[in-house]
Amino acid sequence: MKGCYENLIVIDIGANLTNKKYGRDLDSVVQRAKDAGVQKIMVTGTSVRNSKEALRLTRLYPGTIYSTAGVHPHDAKSMVEEAQWAELRALAAAPECVALGECGLNYTKDFSEPHVQRHAFTKQVEMACELQKPLFVHEKEAQDDLLKILDEFGNRLPPVVIHSFTGSVEQGLKYIEKGFYLGITGYICKDKSDGGIRRLLSERILPLDKLLVETDSPFMYPNMRASKLPLHVKDSLTERSMNFVNRYCTFQRNEPCALPAIVELAAGFMGRSPQDVALATAFNALKLFGLSH
Questions:
Q1: Strand locations in 141-264, DSSP E?
Q2: 44: DSSP letter
Q3: Collapsing DSSP states into helix, strand and coil, what is residue 1?
Q4: Cα atoms found within 13 Å of the Cα of residue 31, Cβ hemisphere only
Q5: Distance between CA 261 and CA 266 in Å, rounded?
């Protein structure tokens, strides 16, 4: 058990490695991830500039890093010219770019007006339909409007991933019924996840073939010392995965090397072996995003 990750493929479908917190030691961060068993990392694009940088990283780390291209709802207001949309489409069309996003709706903060967010999201869904690439979706307190937009595209819609899901069981069920994938992060350590993601896992409401794992680095640090983590879940953590988190990750800067711990935590809640969850989530990511083996 202790060394199981030496032989397993674990895939981080969402890491913000263009963040300036990695400006000085990205090589070490990527190498640590590989040492931990994370063989592929998808770097999230959240603006045109950022998507360009994510694509550049795919060329520096070919076969390890893949990118997404999109405009985060917070940045929706920055998309004022047609030339920006053309540039985004060109980035999204690159073979190393495997999804459209991070795009969606966030009504918890007002960095961009809701109608501006809806316009930008609709344009990106249209782009994903044209390019036939999966959608990497961000949603906070905007599920009804988000589903309304996605429903308008009917059977043209490519596969949809709800990135870094933090919602309730009811919200999760709505996505699962649509056949969407849910991305799980270190948020499962938070007490607030009791009524949502933890129940989706422990009651096996979320099918294993719709589960994906991600660190959302540098955010979503998996606080394994959280008081309300059940004992049987804590027991599913191996010394090896905990060492990577304890030595290299902090609340200020999470890293992709934390992913095996997240897989083990998810496995603990589901009552499954970490190997099964690692293999299933890696297979889901390889198939969904067409990542080369």
A1: 160-162, 181-184, 211-213
A2: P
A3: coil
A4: 4
A5: 9
| Residue that is written with structure tokens 């096996």 in the block | 204
Measuring CA to CA, which residue among 76, 7, 67, 3 is closest to residue 39?
7
Token pair recorded at residue 4? 């199981």
Write the pLDDT tens digit of every residue in 200-219.
Answer: 999 999 999 999 999 999 99
Handedness of CA 246, 221, 57, 260 (dihedral sign): positive
For the record, the structure tokens of 237 come out as 């953590």
CB 191 within 8 A of CB 227: yes
What Å distances lie between residue 28 and 33, 35, 52, 245, CA to CA? 8, 10, 22, 15
- The single residue listed with the structure tokens 């390890």 is 64
Per-residue pLDDT tens for 107-132?
Answer: 998 899 999 999 999 999 999 999 99
> How many CB atoms neighbour CB 95 within 10 A?
9
Report DSSP state, residue 95: T
Residue at token pair 């202790």:
2
Pairing of strands 181-184, 97-106: unpaired
**Contact (Cβ atoms closer than 8 angstroms) between residue 45 and residue 67:** yes
Helices (H), 217-273: 231-234, 239-248, 259-270
Residues 238-279 pLDDT 10s:
999 999 999 999 999 999 999 999 999 999 999 999 999 999
Check the CA dihedral 195-199-205-210 and report its sign.
positive
pLDDT digits over 58-106, tens only? 999 999 999 999 999 999 999 999 999 999 999 999 999 999 999 999 9
CA distance 124 to 137: 10
